[in-house]
Every structure is written in structure tokens, then in C-alpha cells.
TrEMBL record:
EC number: 1.8.1.15
Lineage: Bacteria, Bacillati, Actinomycetota, Actinomycetes, Propionibacteriales
Keyword hit for NAD: yes
UniProt family annotation: Belongs to the class-I pyridine nucleotide-disulfide oxidoreductase family.
Name used for this protein in its record: Mycothione reductase
């Protein structure tokens, strides 16, 4: 039975921790995914954003019309976009796999693995053991239990497959109301596809601050057919695609679309790995349980990324990979994850970015909060763009004078939020941040400056 010093399961963030400092160790790297290199590179962050940017450009004429500029109706060469995206990405995945396969100290396994005992992994017909394991097995798209869906499987996609279509469909039904639904609703509708979004909740992006979710839901309804408070009860083949039976606020209805995109969440892959056989605990939601050093409940086994992190974000997986890497290399001086606030952005239209507590969560936590909502349209650059939908919402704790949450919807939200993330992470108080530095005039960052100044930090709580 082959024995290794280290076994890493997952070629996404797990792959990135194996550098030249592990050259003296025998390493097994296990991944059954095609292409090699994990979700972010092949099926997640990177390709989606390469599809989002053309969609942003396609919406430019609509924005331009508000400021007295007319542009001809733009169009997209979908095959050209797709081939540019994967023409860039696929060679990276292939090169990464070739490089790993050629390393003298590393054995690459390209099959599905499953723990059969502590520190013992079955990979196809082979069983291996290792002194130390890193579980970086990610998550997978969940398919809701909808009657008839399997019978129309050839027309049903997840984010894993939708970006590699041969051609654009004329219509697309998206089931779900989270990040993936929001990003693909923007992309495909901007590309000219008739998009219907079917969401069981009353607001899209329901985990965002209520102000942001409300504004986004209104915006999305202006460019997709949005069915809220609606469930899909069954799917049937139709001459021109799939007919979905719906149950919504006005009773039963139907929608027919050429293709369906399932965007109903992702489940961590600990179960797929049979981790319990190795003494590795899962929490109630199926995530591998880890401590601050990213150690699992089994000795000598660490975990990182989507398999253990509820947020399912790449910057979190990368940070955890750096901690695991350090702790493997320096077992006598281990590092711990801290409680820095975790930001995210949703690259939809308009863009959304958020960090920390929503107003509702801050109040539920018993904080005496000051809240400010600053419209983009209230600052000079917002006048320039004739913006009437976007805002920066800040939530501060009066007891400390510091921000506990920041939420933006609008142009470049993912960039505008970074100084707010920095202030929250490094502990800069609101007054120092607002008045302890210059804010470039008349940049859009003035919306952040004015939101900070609008926070009433002294008012007594009611
Ligand atoms: C469409 C989409 C868009 C996204 N956009 C963003 C974004 O803009 N920003 C952001 O921060 N995050 C984004 N994410 C999330 C981000 O992609 C993930 O958080 C990140 O890639 C997780 O990395 P990981 O290393 O944990 O897992 P992965 O990169 O998924 O790697 C896990 C690997 O393990 C393999 N594996 C699993 N089980 C087994 C097994 N039993 N045997 C062998 N191999 C196995 C899998 O095949 C896979 O290759 C997006 C995700 C999706 C799906
Ligand atoms: N920009 C980014 O950072 C980015 C982009 C895409 C994906 N991601 C990551 O990928 C993860 C998965 O994205 P997602 O959009 O699939 O998940 P999500 O958790 O954001 O949204 C899932 C949606 O599906 C709905 N849903 C769940 N079960 C359902 C069912 N049975 N029937 C109907 N609707 C159902 C939920 O109400 C929710 O609206 C996210 O958690 C996110 O971390 C990140």
C-alpha cells in the first residue's frame, strides 16, 4: 500500500499550498475534477467574471441614454466570448496538471477518493495512507427535488456547464435567488436571452442587508421576468424546451424555456469523501468541523475552503490555505485564523458589495447602532452618471465609534467597499476614517465619505 508524507485532496486552493518547501516530502495530490485546478479557475469566479464584463458593456447604451448619449444597439458574439474565456483558462488547467504530474516527489491521482479508515484513502482500486492529510474538496451544486427534472436533464444546467454552451438559447429559466442566479441573470439577459428567474423567497439575495436586497430585486425585475414567492412543482419536456409548472402568489402557472439553470446552492463535499470513516466530524450543514488552526477533529488532518467554510468564497479559501500551509511547515509555531470580517461582492447589475453585519443582524445582536444610507446620486460623480438607484449603507456601533457593517449597491461597489473593509479590519474609527484623510474630489468615493459623515454616533438610543 503506497504511503505518503502528505496527501492533499482537491486541486483548487489545496493545490496552491504545495510549493517548493514541500520538495523533500512525498506528496499525493488527489482530484477527480475535469478540468484540473478546481472551481474558481474552471467553473467559478474567473470564467463568470469574464462573462460578466461583456454583459456590463452590453448595458452601456442604457446608462448612456440617461446622460444624453446615444449608442447603436450592441450585440454579443457568444461563441467568441466563450472561446476567449476558455481559450485562456483551459491551457492554464492543462499546464497545471502536466506540471504536477511531472513532479518527482508528487503522485497525482485523478479519481474519486473516499476515506475507509483513519488516514487511509481509497482511490479507485488503490488504497493509500499518509502521515498528514489536507482536505480541500470544495462543494458541489445542489439539484432540488423537482418531479420530472431528470427526464429533461439534457436541457438542465448548473454553473458547471452553462458557460460552455454551443450557442445562446433564446430563453433561460433560472431557479434560485442567490449569487449564482443574480450573476447569470445579468449575463444572459444582457446577452439578449429572455430570462425568467423563479425564486421561492420574496426578495432576491435575501442574505444581503434588506435595503440592498430590496433595491436589487427592483433593479433585477426591470431586466428579467422575476417570479417571487414561487416554487417549481414539476418539469416536462416541451417542443421548444422545458415547461416548468409553478406555484406562486397567484396560484399555479407555467413557464417554458429552452434551457434551465439550477442555482439553488452548493453542498460541501465532506460526505462525498466519507470523512466520518476517518474520525472527521461534519457539522449539521455538512461542513467539515475545523478549529482556528484549520485542524479537523482527526489528528494530522486539516481542512480548508468550501468543504469547511460556510461563506464559500475564494478569498477565504486562499487565506485558509495560507494558514494550513504555514501549520504544515511550522508545526511548533502554528498560526490561527482570526475573526476579521469577511467581505463579498456579487457581480450582477448593479454590482453589490458587503462586509460585516446587516442592520437587522446588528440590532438583533443588541448593538446601539447608527445607520446612514447615502445615495450615489447625492455626490457630484453620481450627478455625472445620473444615478438614481444606488446607495452606500453603513452600520456603526455607537459604543465603539466603529463600523460593524458596510453595504453597497451600484457602479464599482466591489472597489468602493475596500477602504471600509480596511477600516473594519484594522480598527479605524468612523471619525478618523472620515476626517483623517483626503477624499479625492469629485470621485465616486465621496459617497463613502458622506455616508461616514452622516452617521450620528452620539444620539442616545431610544
Ligand atoms: C459560478 C461560481 C462563481 C463564483 N464566483 C466567485 C467569486 O466571484 N468570488 C468568490 O470569492 N468566490 C466565488 N465562487 C466560489 C469559489 O469558486 C469557491 O469558494 C472556491 O473555488 C472554493 O475553492 P476550494 O479549493 O475550497 O474548492 P474547489 O476549487 O472546488 O476544489 C475542490 C476539488 O476537489 C475535488 N474533489 C471533491 N471531492 C472529491 C473526491 N471525493 N475525490 C477526489 N476529488 C474530489 C473537486 O473535483 C474539485 O476539483 C464562485 C463559485 C461558483 C460556482
Ligand atoms: N461573487 C461571488 O462571490 C460568488 C458568485 C457565485 C457563487 N458564489 C458562491 O457560490 C455559492 C453558491 O451560490 P448559489 O447562488 O448557488 O447559492 P446561494 O446560497 O447564494 O443561493 C441559493 C438560492 O437557492 C434558493 N434555493 C435553495 N434551495 C432551493 C430549492 N429547493 N428550490 C428553490 N430554490 C432554492 C435559496 O433560496 C437561494 O436563493 C454561494 O454561497 C457563494 O458563496 C460566490
Amino acid at each position: 500500500m503506497p504511503h505518503f508524507d502528505l496527501c492533499v485532496i482537491g486541486s483548487g486552493s489545496g493545490n496552491s499550498l504545495i510549493d517548493e518547501r514541500f520538495a523533500d516530502l512525498s506528496v499525493a495530490l488527489v482530484d477527480d475534477g475535469v478540468p484540473f485546478g478546481g472551481t474558481c479557475l474552471n467553473k467559478g469566479c474567473i470564467p463568470t467574471k469574464m462573462f460578466v464584463y461583456p454583459a456590463d458593456l452590453l448595458r452601456t447604451p442604457g446608462e448612456a441614454a440617461r446622460v444624453n448619449v446615444s449608442m447603436d444597439a450592441p450585440s454579443v458574439d457568444f461563441a467568441g466570448v466563450r472561446d476567449r474565456v476558455f481559450g485562456r483558462i483551459d491551457p492554464i488547467a492543462e499546464g497545471g496538471e502536466r506540471w504536477r504530474a511531472s513532479a518527482s516527489n508528487l503522485t497525482l491521482y485523478r479519481q474519486t477518493a473516499r476515506f475507509v479508515a483513519p488516514k487511509t484513502l481509497q482511490i479507485g482500486d488503490e488504497t493509500i495512507t499518509a502521515d498528514r492529510f489536507v482536505i480541500a474538496a470544495g462543494s458541489r451544486a445542489v439539484r432540488p427535488d423537482i418531479e420530472g427534472l431528470d427526464a429533461v436533464a439534457d436541457r438542465v444546467h448548473t454553473s458547471d456547464t452553462i458557460m460552455r454552451l454551443d450557442a445562446l438559447p433564446t430563453s433561460l429559466a433560472i431557479i434560485g435567488g442567490g449569487f449564482i442566479a443574480a450573476e447569470f441573470a445579468h449575463v444572459f439577459s444582457a446577452y439578449g436571452v429572455h430570462v425568467t428567474v423563479i425564486h421561492r423567497g420574496q426578495r432576491m439575495l435575501a442574505r444581503e442587508d434588506a435595503e440592498i436586497a430590496r433595491r436589487y430585486t427592483r433593479a433585477a425585475a426591470s431586466y428579467v421576468d422575476l417570479r417571487l414567492n414561487t416554487r417549481v412543482t414539476r418539469a416536462d419536456a416541451a417542443a421548444d424546451g422545458v415547461r416548468l409548472s409553478l406555484d406562486g402568489p397567484d396560484g399555479p402557472s407555467e413557464v417554458t424555456a429552452e434551457l434551465v439553470l439550477i442555482a439553488t446552492g452548493r453542498h460541501p463535499n465532506g460526505d462525498r469523501l466519507g470523512v466520518q470513516a476517518a474520525g472527521i466530524e461534519l457539522d449539521a450543514d455538512g461542513y467539515v468541523v475545523v478549529d482556528a488552526q484549520q485542524r479537523t477533529t482527526a489528528e494530522g488532518v486539516w481542512a480548508l475552503g468550501d468543504v469547511c467554510s460556510h461563506g464559500q468564497l475564494k478569498h477565504v479559501a486562499n487565506h485558509e490555505a495560507r494558514i494550513v500551509q504555514h501549520n504544515l511547515l511550522h508545526p511548533d509555531a502554528p498560526r490561527s485564523n482570526d475573526d476579521r470580517p469577511v467581505p463579498h461582492a456579487v457581480f450582477t447589475h448593479p454590482q453589490i458589495a458587503s462586509v460585516g453585519l446587516t442592520e437587522d443582524a446588528a440590532r438583533a445582536a443588541g448593538l446601539d447602532v447608527a445607520v446612514a444610507v447615502q445615495e450615489f446620486g447625492s455626490v457630484a460623480y453620481g450627478w455625472a452618471t445620473a444615478d438614481d438607484t444606488s446607495c452606500c449603507k453603513l452600520v456603526a456601533d455607537r459604543a465603539t465609534g466603529r463600523l460593524v457593517g458596510a453595504h453597497l449597491i451600484g457602479m464599482q461597489a466591489s472597489l468602493l467597499i475596500q477602504p471600509l473593509i480596511q477600516a473594519m479590519t484594522l480598527g479605524t474609527d468612523v471619525v478618523t476614517m472620515a476626517r483623517g484623510q483626503y477624499w479625492i474630489h469629485p470621485a465616486l468615493t465621496e459617497v463613502v465619505e458622506n455616508a461616514l459623515l452622516a452617521l450620528n454616533l452620539t444620539e442616545e438610543s431610544a
